[in-house]
Amino acid sequence: MNLKLVTICAAAAILATAADCRARTPHPAPSPGGHPFEMPHVARPAIPADTVSVADFGGVGDGHTLNTAAFAAAIDALAARGGGRVEVPEGVWFTGPIVLKDNIELHVGQNAVIVFSDDKSLYPLVETTFEGLNTLRCQSPLSARGVKNVAVTGRGVIDGNGDAWRAVKKDKLNPRQWKELVQGGGVLSDDGKTWYPSESYKFGATSGADQNVSTWATTRADFERMRDFLRPVMVAVHNCENVLLEGVTFQNSPCWNIHPAMCTNLIVNDITVRCPDYAQNSDGIDIESCRNVVLTNSRFDVGDDGICIKSGKDKAGRDRGIPCENILVDNCIVFHGHGGFVVGSEMSGGVRNVKVSNCVFSGTDVGLRFKSTRGRGGVVEHIWIEDIAMSDILQEPLLFDLFYGGKSASEALAAGPEAESADLAPVAVDETTPAFRNIHIRNVWCRGARRAMYFNGLPEMNVEHVTVENTYIYAATGARINESSDVVLRNVQIVPEQGPALMLNNVKNLRAEGFVAPGGLDRALVVTGSRNRGIAVSSAQITKENADLSECAARYVVIK
Q1: Are residues 188 and 291 in the same domain?
Q2: Over its length of 560 residues, how does the chain's per-residue pLDDT go in tens digits?
Q3: Distances (CA, A) of 397 to 139, 167, 355, 361, 544
């Protein structure tokens, strides 16, 4: 099977899907008022009325002619006149990189598909930020840097031709797919479990990397040795002001699909983002160190996190010091991915003032995913999440993990038993200590998950001040809360298929008010650890008789 061909040939189906989505009545964009934090008005970019077609500059939409020069000429002509709209009419427009300028709208029309070339020589190494670090990577197929008033709109498709760039793990494909992929070229890892598109990619992946960023390369020559490994983000919008993405289907990215970074005033509305489920690092949208963001009425079906909020990694992120703040997410669907709505793990510059509402997560590894680790630093706070429906969640509907190790929740589980934090010793708190606090979650429904909830804070920096209310979860096992403080579970119902409904370990000041568990459980509540304090549980189904309390925890637990 030609994996690239499969994705491109699906364009017709995608267009049909997009047409179906257009028939929906979208929610109006949230207004600045009525939110738990002061949300500035986010205006659409001001694009002049001047319009040209890429065909006016020699472009040919035959799926074969390389249109890089035509796109550049159309954009340059409009920019010289103060800006306007570049229209991409129906057809298949094959091209190299497209770079947007001030006051430019790229409008991908109905029945129009932009397919980026798989000729990697067209994408030179450029200085950029990726995974929260300053580094060199191949130029993004579609980019805008340091400009004002820029937009990508329309009802067409933008295809990143990502299969030409990405490695593929053997366990992501069936035997026939794997055989055909290997026979089509490329090289295998030494253990035969990963396919690489080239020796250059394999060298980059195996010579030392922190996730996807080299840990040893310092010169341009070093990076050139591994060019193929330095996959570009498909849409990179960095250091821009007044940005609009609307209506378009973005698919098959070499790496992350959409990466707005250090932007002010960003509107993303009614887009579709999709990648194959085997696509590594194919995040839907990564909003990094941006201010004043409205994301609405959009759909994501990818191989990694769906909607992700970031703010730089480790010392680089702390030195940048630009939080991601004033974010509204409303009426979005994530069909597949490692996480539905995600914060981290690169959050060293902080995340604050975020509201997520009216979303559906179906088939993701995790629903609401908050992740970080020692060494990051950064504070995630003032988060409000409400009216979330989930189904067929592979791991947890709600996850706070301050021991994140770079794997998806499913990959981490497959790697071996998770580390229990029963009495891990705290370490000194400093600027590298991450923090999750002041998070409010209500009106959540989930049917189908491995575990109802998992809070895993640090002994020295608990997950703290988290409220979960009016929440109903049916899962294989109950909720586990480790190293957490000032937690309120109000009107929470957890129905596990087996085991206790609620497991607590080293928890301080937790109130479970109106907690509902199945009747007749032999062990409905389990409390372990030596650092528990001030636990109060009010539940008709939890009694002293079906509570399993460790000797040192018993005196700190009140059951009503």
Answers
A1: no
A2: 344 433 333 433 433 343 333 333 455 555 556 799 999 999 999 999 999 999 999 999 999 999 999 999 999 999 999 999 999 999 999 999 999 999 999 999 999 999 999 999 999 999 999 999 999 999 999 999 999 999 999 999 999 999 999 999 999 999 999 999 999 999 999 999 999 999 999 999 999 998 899 999 999 999 999 999 999 999 999 999 999 999 999 999 999 999 999 999 999 999 999 999 999 999 999 999 999 999 999 999 999 999 999 999 999 999 999 999 999 999 999 998 999 999 999 999 999 999 999 999 999 999 999 999 999 999 999 999 999 999 999 999 999 999 998 766 666 666 665 655 557 889 999 999 999 999 999 999 999 999 999 999 999 999 999 999 999 999 999 999 999 999 999 999 999 999 999 999 999 999 999 999 999 999 999 999 999 999 999 999 999 999 999 998 999 999 99
A3: 36, 29, 17, 9, 28
DSSP strand pairing (451-456 vs 477-496): parallel
Residue 504 placed within a domain: no
Same domain membership, residue 199 and residue 93: no
Neighbours of 34 (CB within 10 A): 8
Beta-sheet pairing, 157-159 with 264-269 = unpaired
- Counted residue by residue, the chain has a size of 560
Regarding whether 118 and 52 lie in a shared domain, the answer is yes
Task: For residue 270, give its domain range.
Answer: 1-165+232-304
| Interatomic CA distance for residues 475 and 360, integer angstroms | 17
Q: Among 163, 314, 338, 401, which one carries the catalytic annotation?
A: 338
Active-site annotation holder among 228, 304, 314, 365 = 304
Contact residues for 541 (Cβ-Cβ < 8 A; gap 6+): 501, 515, 516, 517, 518, 519, 521, 524
Residues 54 and 69 in one domain: yes
Amino acid type, 441: I
Q: What is the DSSP string of 413-448?
A: HHHSPPPP-TTPPP----TT--EEEEEEEEEEEEE-
Where a domain ends, among 240, 269, 304? 304
Hey, what are 199's tokens? Answer: 């020796």
Cα dihedral sign, 77-81-84-90: negative
Q: Report how many domains make up the chain.
A: 2
Catalytic residue at 440?
A: no
The token duo for 20 is 């179906």
- Are 280 and 131 in a shared domain? yes
Nearest-angstrom CA–CA distance, 518 and 100: 57
- Is the four-CA dihedral 400, 406, 407, 412 of positive or negative sign? negative
Q: Is 27 a catalytic residue?
A: no
Contact between 371 and 436 under an 8 Å Cβ cutoff? The reply is no
Residue 398 · residue 454 · CB < 8 Å: yes
In a domain, 508, yes or no: no
The DSSP bridge partners found for residue 368 are 341, 398
Burial 480-505 (b: 16+ CB within 10 A, else e): bbbbbbbbbbbbbbbebeebbbbbbb
